[in-house]
Amino acid sequence: MAESSVGRGVKADAEADAEAPRRFRNALAMFATGVAVITAPREEGLPVGITVASFNSVSLDPPLVLFSVDRRCLSLGDLRTARRYAVNVLAEAQQDISNRFARANSGKWEGIDFGKRDGDNHVLLPDALATFECEPYAQHDGGDHVIFIGRVVRHQARQDGRPLIFFGGKYRALEDSPAAA
Ligand SMILES: Cc1cc2nc3c(=O)[nH]c(=O)nc-3n(C[C@H](O)[C@H](O)[C@H](O)COP(=O)(O)O)c2cc1C
Predict the structure, then answer these.
(1) What is the residue range of 19's domain?
(2) 11 Cα: distance to centroid of ligand 1 (angstroms)
(3) Is the same domain home to 72 and 136?
(4) Using a 6 Å cutoff on CB, does residue 88 contact ligand 1?
(5) How many CA atoms lie within 13 A of 127 on its CB side?
(6) For residue range 124-177, what is the model confidence (pLDDT) as tens digits?
(7) Which positions ≥6 away from 17 have C-beta within 8 Å?
(8) pTM of this structure
(9) Number of structural domains the chain divides into
(10) How far, in Å, from the CA of 30 to the mean position of ligand 1?
(11) All residues at 6 or more sequence positions from 147 whose CB lies less than 8 Å from its CB, including other chains
(12) For the residues of 8-44, what is the DSSP string, one character each?
């Protein structure tokens, strides 16, 4: 009796453990974010471009922002050595851009005019809601991600746009009604 109940306990614990990562991801998904594409020139070939929801502000003085990149991302090596990168905050109408830059090896830049093809210029996506051009400031270990902190050297924002929102694993649109008090 005692043995079998111990056995059930171990199985239940194992099932609970197997569920734990999913429950953690689901809880994290309750934090609504915007969506951004991190872009960086490469010395040769097409620029780096990767969709992130992990963008956030860090410091006003100096002006710092952060995002984190999964160690499995193909872009990681180039981002780690990039001399400059930019955060392009996506507008509501840019869901297709978000999906495109969230797929590795997918012809990310097809049909997009990103300007000069050299390492000396920031790469900016057309029609972004805001852009933050950064110089690398710090990189930190973030477990299975690498945390990038960028120093903002230039930024611009459109006043007319609406943001693309990510919440609960889905894209959302902003509703203009004020939050309930
Ligand atoms: C809405 C959304 C948000 C994402 N946020 C992140 C993120 O913050 N960090 C990350 O490493 N990957 C994130 N991803 C996944 C990457 O965009 C995806 O792994 C991409 O294929 C990486 O490209 P690469 O392997 O060519 O570098 C996100 C994807 C989506 C759709």
Answers:
(1) 1-30
(2) 34
(3) yes
(4) no
(5) 12
(6) 999 999 999 999 999 999 999 999 999 999 999 999 899 999 999 999 999 887
(7) none
(8) 0.91
(9) 2
(10) 18
(11) 66, 67, 68, 139, 140, 141
(12) HHHHHHHHHHHHHHHHHHHHHTTS-EE-EEEEE--SS
63, 115: one domain: yes
Residue 76 CA to ligand 1 center (angstroms) comes to: 11
* Residues 17 and 105 grouped into a single domain: no
- What are the structure tokens assigned to 23, written together? 């429950």
Is position 109 within any domain?
Answer: yes
Question: Residue 15 domain-assigned?
Answer: yes
| Contact (CB, 8 A) for 87 and 65 | yes
Best residue among 28, 69, 71, 73 to mutate for probing ligand 1's pocket (most ligand atoms within 8 Å of CB) is: 73
In eight-state DSSP terms, residue 73 is -
Inside any domain, residue 159: yes
